[in-house]
Protein backbone atom coordinates (compact mmCIF):
# COMPACT_ATOMS: atom_id res chain seq x y z
CA UNK A 1 0.00 0.00 0.00
CA UNK A 2 2.90 2.38 0.71
CA UNK A 3 4.22 2.16 -2.85
CA UNK A 4 1.04 1.64 -4.85
CA UNK A 5 -1.29 4.03 -3.03
CA UNK A 6 0.80 6.40 -0.93
CA UNK A 7 3.42 6.68 -3.68
CA UNK A 8 0.84 7.62 -6.31
CA UNK A 9 -0.88 10.02 -3.91
CA UNK A 10 2.39 11.80 -3.08
CA UNK A 11 3.36 12.03 -6.75
CA UNK A 12 -0.06 13.49 -7.60
CA UNK A 13 0.23 15.98 -4.75
CA UNK A 14 3.55 17.39 -5.94
CA UNK A 15 2.91 17.05 -9.69
CA UNK A 16 -0.38 18.95 -9.42
CA UNK A 17 1.18 21.63 -7.20
CA UNK A 18 3.91 22.19 -9.80
CA UNK A 19 1.50 22.19 -12.74
CA UNK A 20 -0.77 24.74 -11.05
CA UNK A 21 2.22 27.12 -10.93
CA UNK A 22 2.85 26.72 -14.67
CA UNK A 23 1.22 28.91 -17.28
CA UNK A 24 -1.26 27.02 -19.46
CA UNK A 25 -0.19 26.37 -23.03
CA UNK A 26 -2.77 26.66 -25.79
CA UNK A 27 -1.54 24.74 -28.82
CA UNK A 28 -3.76 26.58 -31.30
CA UNK A 29 -5.23 29.74 -29.71
CA UNK A 30 -6.77 30.94 -32.98
CA UNK A 31 -8.87 27.79 -33.20
CA UNK A 32 -10.65 28.60 -29.93
CA UNK A 33 -10.74 32.41 -30.18
CA UNK A 34 -13.89 32.61 -32.27
CA UNK A 35 -15.79 29.85 -30.43
CA UNK A 36 -16.39 31.23 -26.92
CA UNK A 37 -19.84 29.67 -26.65
CA UNK A 38 -18.63 26.24 -27.72
CA UNK A 39 -15.59 25.95 -25.54
CA UNK A 40 -13.96 27.75 -22.66
CA UNK A 41 -10.59 26.23 -23.38
CA UNK A 42 -8.00 27.48 -20.92
CA UNK A 43 -4.96 25.62 -22.16
CA UNK A 44 -2.98 22.68 -20.83
CA UNK A 45 -0.68 22.81 -17.84
CA UNK A 46 0.38 19.18 -18.03
CA UNK A 47 -0.51 15.51 -18.10
CA UNK A 48 -0.10 12.86 -15.43
CA UNK A 49 -0.23 9.14 -16.20
CA UNK A 50 -0.50 6.77 -13.23
CA UNK A 51 0.42 3.09 -13.44
CA UNK A 52 -2.45 0.88 -12.33
CA UNK A 53 -3.55 -2.54 -13.53
CA UNK A 54 -6.49 -4.36 -15.00
CA UNK A 55 -6.86 -5.65 -11.43
CA UNK A 56 -7.88 -2.08 -10.57
CA UNK A 57 -10.82 -2.28 -12.98
CA UNK A 58 -12.23 -5.79 -12.53
CA UNK A 59 -11.93 -8.49 -9.90
CA UNK A 60 -9.25 -11.05 -10.61
CA UNK A 61 -9.50 -14.35 -8.69
CA UNK A 62 -6.57 -15.73 -6.69
CA UNK A 63 -4.71 -12.43 -6.81
CA UNK A 64 -3.62 -10.80 -3.56
CA UNK A 65 -6.47 -8.77 -2.10
CA UNK A 66 -4.07 -6.00 -1.05
CA UNK A 67 -2.76 -5.75 -4.62
CA UNK A 68 -6.27 -5.44 -6.06
CA UNK A 69 -7.31 -2.93 -3.38
CA UNK A 70 -4.23 -0.82 -4.08
CA UNK A 71 -4.90 -0.79 -7.82
CA UNK A 72 -8.59 0.11 -7.28
CA UNK A 73 -7.35 2.94 -5.02
CA UNK A 74 -5.07 4.22 -7.79
CA UNK A 75 -8.04 4.29 -10.15
CA UNK A 76 -10.07 6.23 -7.58
CA UNK A 77 -7.25 8.74 -7.06
CA UNK A 78 -6.79 9.07 -10.82
CA UNK A 79 -10.48 9.62 -11.56
CA UNK A 80 -10.91 12.08 -8.70
CA UNK A 81 -7.83 14.12 -9.67
CA UNK A 82 -8.94 14.08 -13.32
CA UNK A 83 -12.33 15.54 -12.41
CA UNK A 84 -10.97 18.06 -9.90
CA UNK A 85 -8.19 19.47 -12.09
CA UNK A 86 -9.57 19.24 -15.64
CA UNK A 87 -10.72 22.88 -15.50
CA UNK A 88 -7.18 23.85 -14.50
CA UNK A 89 -5.77 22.27 -17.66
CA UNK A 90 -4.31 19.22 -15.96
CA UNK A 91 -5.04 15.83 -17.54
CA UNK A 92 -4.83 12.80 -15.26
CA UNK A 93 -5.07 9.27 -16.65
CA UNK A 94 -3.91 5.75 -15.83
CA UNK A 95 -2.56 2.87 -17.84
CA UNK A 96 -3.99 -0.51 -16.87
CA UNK A 97 -1.95 -3.35 -18.30
CA UNK A 98 -3.38 -6.84 -18.11
CA UNK A 99 -1.47 -9.81 -16.74
CA UNK A 100 2.22 -9.65 -17.60
CA UNK A 101 4.91 -12.27 -17.02
CA UNK A 102 6.88 -10.78 -14.13
CA UNK A 103 8.50 -12.28 -11.02
CA UNK A 104 5.37 -11.30 -9.06
CA UNK A 105 3.21 -13.18 -11.57
CA UNK A 106 5.38 -16.28 -11.25
CA UNK A 107 5.11 -16.17 -7.42
CA UNK A 108 1.32 -15.89 -7.73
CA UNK A 109 1.14 -18.81 -10.15
CA UNK A 110 3.23 -21.01 -7.83
CA UNK A 111 0.54 -20.68 -5.13
CA UNK A 112 -2.45 -20.92 -7.48
CA UNK A 113 -4.52 -24.02 -8.18
CA UNK A 114 -3.73 -26.14 -11.26
CA UNK A 115 -4.97 -24.60 -14.49
CA UNK A 116 -5.08 -21.11 -13.03
CA UNK A 117 -2.52 -19.88 -15.56
CA UNK A 118 -5.04 -20.48 -18.38
CA UNK A 119 -7.81 -18.79 -16.40
CA UNK A 120 -5.55 -15.81 -15.79
CA UNK A 121 -4.58 -15.62 -19.47
CA UNK A 122 -8.26 -15.42 -20.38
CA UNK A 123 -8.55 -12.17 -18.39
CA UNK A 124 -6.19 -10.59 -20.95
CA UNK A 125 -8.00 -9.13 -23.97
CA UNK A 126 -5.77 -11.16 -26.30
CA UNK A 127 -6.19 -14.32 -24.21
CA UNK A 128 -2.54 -14.61 -23.23
CA UNK A 129 -0.03 -13.48 -20.67
CA UNK A 130 1.96 -10.54 -21.99
CA UNK A 131 5.74 -10.62 -22.11
CA UNK A 132 7.52 -7.51 -20.84
CA UNK A 133 9.81 -5.79 -23.33
TrEMBL record:
InterPro entries: NAD(P)-bd_dom_sf, SDR_fam
Species of provenance: Branchiostoma floridae (Florida lancelet)
Designated name of the protein: 2,5-dichloro-2,5-cyclohexadiene-1,4-diol dehydrogenase-like
Cross-referenced Pfam families: adh_short
Amino acid sequence: MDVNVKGVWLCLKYEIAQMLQQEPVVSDPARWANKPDLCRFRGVRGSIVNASSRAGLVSVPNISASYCVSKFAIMGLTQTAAMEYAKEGICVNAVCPAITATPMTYRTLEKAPPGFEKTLALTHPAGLIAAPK
